[in-house]
Write a structure and sequence with these properties.
Shape of chain B: globular
Number of strands of chain B: 2
CATH topology of the largest domain in chain A: Rossmann fold
Strand content of chain B: under 5%
Radius of gyration of chain A: 17 Å
Structural class of chain A: alpha/beta
CATH class of chain B: Mainly Alpha
Strand content of chain A: 25-35%
Strand order of the largest sheet of chain A: 6-7-8-3-9-10
Number of domains of chain B: 1
Oligomer: heterodimer
Order of helices and strands of chain B: HHHHHHHEHHHHEHHHHHH
CATH class of the largest domain in chain A: Alpha Beta
CATH architecture of chain B: Orthogonal Bundle
Number of helices of chain B: 17
Largest sheet of chain B: 2 strands, antiparallel
Number of strands of chain A: 10
Helix content of chain B: over 70%
Distance between the termini of chain A: 35 Å
Amino acid sequence: MIEPLLKLSDVHTHVGPYHILHGVYFDIPEGELTMLLGRNGAGKTTTLRTIMGLWKASSGEIRFGEKDITAMSTPDIARSGIAYVPESMGIFTDLTVRENIVLAARSGPVDSARLDWILGLLPALKRFWNLPAGNLSGGQKQMLAIARAIAEPRRLLLVDEPTKGLAPVMVRSMIEAFKALKAAGETILLVEQSFYAASALGDNVLVMDDGRIVHSGAMSDLVADKALQQRLLGLSLDAHQ
Amino acid sequence: MSMSSALTLPPDETRRSGFFSRILSSDPPRSWVLSLILLAILLVLAATPFLFSGSQPLSTAAKICVFIVLVASYDLLLGYSGIVSFAHTMFFGIGGYGIAIALEQIEPTWASAGIGLVAALALSAVLAAAIGLLSLRVRAIFFSMITLAVASAVAVLASQMSEITGGEDGLSFQLPFELRPAFRPLEDQLFGVTVNGRILAYYLIFFVALFVFLLLLRIVNSPFGRVLQAIRENEFRAEALGYRVVAYRTAASVLSALAATVAGALMALWLRYNGPDTTLSFSIMIDILLMVVIGGMGTMYGAVIGATLFVLAQSYLQVLMAAGSEALEGIPILPILIHPDRWLLWLGALFIISVYAFPGGIVGRLRQAKQ
């Protein structure tokens, strides 16, 4: 059996007095795109932040490859090969588009072939190369956040709701960009509210509710099973369409 | 990863080649008006000994040079790194005391000045690193309080250790021979001015200040400077990219402290004196904050504008008001209102108006006008 790239075992997270994650278990296989779905407040963002060490797990274990990263600091987790695109896009608005991307390449100048590839994937960024990132539209900011996450080769991308609040045309561009990333063999854990986007992209799916994983399996099975969709994503199904 | 056919990468328009661009670390003033003002300040400061007679203009120009370095170094902390420190005058004071103690206690030579400066730089670096590593992990307000406490403790210490520091009276000392007024490097006058050690001391301050300013400009425009700006905007995002925030902030604190130490040393060299009131006083800290805000935070050029305006106002506002008060004699109320004794009131009013009118500082306003 192939070892998963990321493995969460019985992870609990408290944020202040609130117990958010109640024993999360899941595996992320290498080279595949895994969708993390669930209603608002289910614990999806907390899961990503806990993996990144931005909120510390109160118990349980997070393994990334061979390493136990549960107690590691955020910079060390990032340096071990995990890139994180937060829900709020996470770009630096005072810096230019170029500076945002260069900043992400800690190990030195961005490889020009890789930069060509990134700008081919997200061509809108090329036009705003020397502009402050704060001047970009919401969709362009989201593209920049993703470009920054892949500026250096990383072993795992954690992306939090990349299509949230975007116009349909931007959502389609984003889906195309993730398809290209998937084709390039990137391992991605993607939190998404849009079932349309999730079903177009996911190899695997995890569904969260009340701080626990309540379903895991192949995305194609969930897409094919309307009853399962209704049961898992039930009340918020309309929002997911 | 599949590669597309090679695209032509967009050039970095912020990086222009050329001598001036390299000198300014590809960070030009980005406004014609601002460029002209900065050029005028540079030329006037460079030619002050030959443009004005008397000691006050030269002293004012030297003070402007020193404060440009001091304010720029503080802007590296506040404007570029988002760190509010109240210990900046402590490093300014360490530089001043380093020079004063060495020249007074050893002998008035260049070697002693060098020893004093190196010792002051080492002490400042150690203190800044210790304060940074111990307290930059805590929330910003606590860090500010810690720096305030440490700065107050050092000011008390400097007053108490009177055998070394001269206590409240401070230390007067002699400069190396080449910087004394009696020294005449040229037999003939130059542009009608007798060049003496005092003018050499001024140029020493001018060129060191210029060098340190350009060095700070290089630092804020380096990849290190960009990381500081990213941390200022959102430290968690910077951490998620793999940057160790405390290490970067501590490095910024140390660099800023070193530049402030150099400024303190220059101030002491100019005054031939160092005491608590000239370098350690909390009122200097307030002045620095005002200069940063008036010039414009997060831009090194703001330090030049802020320091020049502030020092000029401090030096000449009273004189201007006296002349105005005399001219308006006979008119009711007005001469009383602008009586020179009220200069601090008007200085305060000017600052409130300028902060209200230019929330991004003068440099921010000029750049905005250009856009």
